[in-house]
Specification:
The complex is a heterodimer. Chain A has helices at 10-22, 74-83, 96-99, 108-113, 121-124, 159-163, 197-208, 222-226, 247-261, 272-283, 306-317, 341-348, 361-366, 375-388; strands at 3-5, 27-30, 46-49, 56-60, 65-69, 86-87, 131-138, 143-147, 171-179, 181-182, 186-193, 214-220, 238-245, 267-270, 296-301, 320-324, 329-333, 352-358. By secondary structure, chain A is α+β, with helices and mostly antiparallel strands. The relative contact order of chain B is 0.11. The chains are: A alpha+beta, B alpha+beta. Chains A and B meet through strand 1, helix 1, strand 8, helix 6 and strand 10 of A and strand 9, helix 9, helix 10, helix 12 and helix 18 of B.
Chain lengths: 403, 496
């Protein structure tokens, strides 16, 4: 066990970071540790346990704004929002099932730092898109704020959004202000059975390019489809498209979408309750849950390129996979314990980015967990890191070896 | 007036050499060095500030931009990037000792990709130009700032522009997928593309809204959306601004996110009605336009619900558009509000604060007090959905001291916005105009962190200096870290 420092508030965090910087010590930042096994395996001198920096500090439903301390559990925030029929529209995924850990144990700070989103990413955006303001402690041990509590704000650089997806390597957030949105009253899912990857890609593209306002689009080859309970072992590939909104609108758009998709193949549907369960499974990658010995990759790419990339990796490795984000997101599970990084990066060929989400510490130490950068981007990433954390105190090496 | 940094005499002395070097890079008419021809570039939309640049250069390729910036970097020459020059905050105000880099020749749409719902455009393409390019297939680009006929997508990236639909469809930052950018060193770099989310740090977040201080954008990839099936609007008059504000809160509280929701106060209503005769009621204190878009079944249902809420909030007048012509007429007055105010006053000064919506009645009443104090009238248009307030201060520049009074009045309004929990600028940018007000919102530590980010991109401080940040420091000074190893304030914390 290494030393753990448990600050009570932002001043404590600043104190701990200042002290670490003075002594050239490195800190691992954790909220409740739910995503600790993601990222490069790093060497640190102590753990900065932020779990006490917790609690909702402001929630004004009619202003669509919520502020919370960074380690507030997502579940607590979702419960508060639910009481006013609102939600985090970016639908943050829960890594619990994939990492074989407890579900629902993440914090809002962790969700932001990991840049989480879910199937609604294609319509509503990711965590970054809902960031309004932050207070944080830089690697210099200084408390700073940026942004505000209003949606429209161009006063200074957009540091709140920058910190989304920065994996705690730039600053330790202590306070987060988010835009929240009303939850849809109703939802439904249209299914198309038996499509090839390429044909499914065309169907999803047609649906997204229609005025049906599709809020999620996924395609599952037979193997993952047979592993999602709401689909009841279809024995063939399933393409799924979600519609959300007021009931009258969902009914009407479902009719329009079915009309559009009928030429592609046999149709089916999930009602509201089944839809909610199904998309949670897609969001949390439950077809690949628990088998922690098998590496899982997440690839973000141009939707129409995805079938070729998936086929390339599948041919080389035998990986199972499925598509979310209308094809733009590929989840892949390797059949054995090796990440097969070469095969993944060769097939992707720089046309997007691949992240090794699940792998043993040894594998994460030997592979590039995040997409390697070209020299110009690598240099500016390094300078950005130094602008916040010149001594490399905060989560050093979590994203890149040199930062 | 905000003071710009003093010109560097050693640069001005080298002017001929610099012009010659630029002509080597951009041949023909792409370099403008005589005062008469440079005159159109001396200011942007913030016309109270004027300054001739040292030289204007209008490159056509990314390679030329790269060579220009590299030359300027190596020779210590400042650069001010410019799109269409529609900035209302002086973001493109030239420097006497700086190169004005105009991107007007980057005016091509490079790729329209319907299958992936993306358009790749050069930065000089106008905002509306993107929507026009995809209109044939009923697609559009969602952010729609009022200046969309003229303003460019490159300028939108610099300012993180919004528009009347951004509550539902987001700002520029929510609709840009990628950029190609040239750093001050001349290095060309790409962030994002047609895929979602950043690889590594989310540089797009930093670049969008950075007001031309981090790099020169030479290509932009945006996402496009299918047009909604239909749109209808309500025009609702209220006896008080409190009632109108209450109605806005209740609509959102009911879980309805309108495509657009705009408010005007009495002076703005009267000015607009006199100008475009949109049929606005004149005996109300506040007018609300609520637009709902989507499938017909949804829009019709929501129109009913919003009507009910408006009635409950004590609306004095309520009209619902029954066709496109009526809907556009509702909007005509709002869209013409700025020129309408321009008709009733020799000059007006357009402000741009954002406030928490619930504070609107308080801010309007305090603004009336300020109006009396400064002896200047003010008309208000308000993006009610997102809290972005545009007070238009009426003044006459030909009257001794009125411009100064208008500026002081404006500064007081922005201080008020920050006081009630809002911000200095919602969509027009800090630029020169609000530069010296930055300390109202940010302390020195906050601003120093932002300046350090600037240093990561532009270590010599050559890109658009004098904008956004009230004080300039050398990057080497900024990077120094003073470590306090003395007594600690929290003795009960575990130590190493």
């Amino acid at each position: 066990m290494q030393d753990a420092i448990k600050p009570r508030d932002a001043n404590d965090v600043a104190e701990a970071v200042t002290s670490a910087a003075a002594k050239e010590k490195r800190l691992e930042l954790i909220g409740r540790g739910s995503k600790r096994e993601i990222g490069r395996a790093t060497q640190t001198d102590a753990t900065l346990d932020l779990s006490a920096i917790s609690g909702i500090t402001l929630y004004e439903p009619e202003e669509l704004v919520l502020s919370a301390r960074a380690a507030t559990p997502i579940s607590e925030i979702e419960k508060a929002l639910e009481a006013s029929k609102q939600e985090l529209a970016f639908e943050p995924m829960d890594y619990g099932p994939l990492l074989n850990k407890a579900s629902g144990s993440g914090t809002i700070g962790g969700a932001i730092a990991a840049g989480l989103s879910g199937p609604r990413r294609i319509k509503a955006g990711a965590a970054r898109d809902f960031m309004l303001g932050i207070a944080a402690v830089s690697g210099r041990g200084e408390i700073f704020k940026a942004g505000g509590r209003v949606v429209k704000n161009v006063t200074g650089y957009d540091l709140p959004r920058l910190l989304a997806g920065s994996w705690g390597t730039l600053a330790a957030m202590t306070d987060i202000t988010l835009k929240v949105l009303p939850r849809a009253e109703d939802c439904a899912t249209v299914l198309v059975f038996g499509l090839t990857d390429i044909r499914a890609n065309e169907a999803m593209s047609a649906a997204m390019g229609s005025s049906c306002e599709v809020s999620a689009a996924a395609h599952l080859p037979q193997w993952p489809a047979d592993n999602i309970s709401e689909l009841k072992s279809p024995g063939k590939a399933v393409t799924a498209l979600r519609l959300e909104g007021i009931s009258q609108s969902v009914v009407y758009r479902k009719m329009k979408l079915e009309e559009l998709l009928r030429p592609f193949g046999e149709l089916g549907a999930l009602d509201a309750a089944a839809s909610r369960g199904f998309w949670k499974n897609i969001r949390d990658v439950t077809p690949f849950a628990n088998r922690t010995e098998r590496p899982v990759w997440k690839i973000s790419t141009t939707p129409t390129l995805a079938p070729v990339i998936a086929a390339g990796i599948n041919t080389a490795t035998g990986a199972h996979y499925y598509y979310d984000w209308a094809g733009g997101l590929l989840w892949l599970e390797m059949p054995e314990d090796k990440p097969q990084e070469g095969a993944v990066r060769t097939a992707l060929a720089g046309r997007g980015h691949a992240t090794l989400i699940r792998a043993s510490a040894a594998a994460r130490a030997s592979a590039d967990v995040f997409e390697p950068l070209d020299p110009v981007r690598a240099a500016i990433s390094q300078r950005l890191k130094e602008s916040f954390d010149p001594k490399g105190v905060l989560n050093p090496g979590r994203i890149y070896a040199e930062s | 007036m905000v003071a710009m940094p003093a010109p560097d005499r050693s640069v001005l002395e080298r002017r001929e050499k610099i012009v010659a070097a630029l002509r080597e890079i951009v041949p023909g008419e792409g370099v403008i060095a005589n005062d008469v021809a440079m005159r159109p570039y001396e200011s942007d939309g913030l016309t109270a500030y004027r300054q001739l640049p040292m030289v204007v250069v209008l490159p056509e390729t990314t390679a030329q931009v790269s060579r220009i910036l590299r030359y300027c970097y190596e020779n210590g020459v400042k650069v001010v990037p410019r799109g269409a020059g529609t900035s209302l905050s002086g973001g493109a105000l030239p420097l006497a000792d700086g190169v004005l880099l105009g991107l007007g020749k980057f005016n091509k749409v490079l790729d329209i990709d319907y299958a992936n719902r993306a358009v790749v455009a050069q930065p000089g393409v106008t905002n509306l130009g993107i929507s026009n390019a995809v209109e044939g297939k009923s697609f559009y680009y969602a952010p729609d700032p009022s200046s969309q006929i003229a303003c460019t997508i490159g300028g939108n990236v610099a300012e993180n522009s919004g528009g009347v639909h951004c509550l539902k469809y987001g700002l520029t930052t929510n609709n840009v997928l990628g950029v190609e950018m040239v750093l001050m060193t001349g290095e060309v770099v790409r962030f994002g593309g047609k895929h979602l989310d950043a690889e590594g740090y989310d540089f797009l977040s930093l670049i969008i809204g950075s007001e031309g201080l981090l790099g020169v954008v030479t290509e932009v990839t945006v996402r496009i959306l299918k047009k909604p099936e239909t749109a209808r609007a309500l025009l609702v008059g209220f006896p008080t601004s409190e009632a109108a504000g209450d109605c806005v809160a209740k609509i959102i509280g009911a879980g309805i996110i309108p495509g657009g929701m705009e408010m005007m106060d009495k002076p703005a209503i009267h000015a607009s009605e006199a100008f475009v005769k949109a049929g606005y009621p004149l005996d109300v204190e506040a007018l609300l336009i609520v637009e709902l878009d989507g499938p017909e079944a949804e829009v019709d249902h929501l129109i009913e619900r919003v009507s009910g809420i408006a009635n409950d909030c004590g609306s004095a007048t309520l009209r619902i558009s029954n066709n496109e012509e009526e809907r556009l007429k509702f909007w005509a007055g709002r869209k013409a509000a700025f020129p309408a105010v321009g008709r009733i006053s020799p000059d007006y000064y357009c402000m741009d604060g954002t406030i928490p919506r619930a504070k609107l009645p308080l801010v309007l009443s305090k603004m009336r007090e300020l109006s009396a104090k400064y002896g200047l009238l003010v008309a208000n248009v308000f993006h009610a959905g997102d809290g972005n307030l545009h007070p238009l201060i009426l003044y006459d520049a030909n009257k001794e001291g009125e411009l100064q009074r208008a500026e002081d009045f404006g500064n007081d309004i922005l201080r008020l916005c920050v006081e009630v929990g809002g911000v200095l600028t919602g969509e027009h940018g800090v630029g020169v105009e609000k530069r010296d007000l930055m300390p109202v919102m940010f302390n020195k530590t906050d601003l120093d962190q932002q300046l350090r980010v600037k240093c990561a991109f532009d270590d010599k401080g050559l890109l658009n200096p004098g904008k956004v940040f009230p004080e300039l420091h050398r990057c080497a000074e900024m990077g120094r870290m003073h470590v306090h190893t003395g007594k600690t304030a929290f003795p009960d914390l575990p130590r190493f």
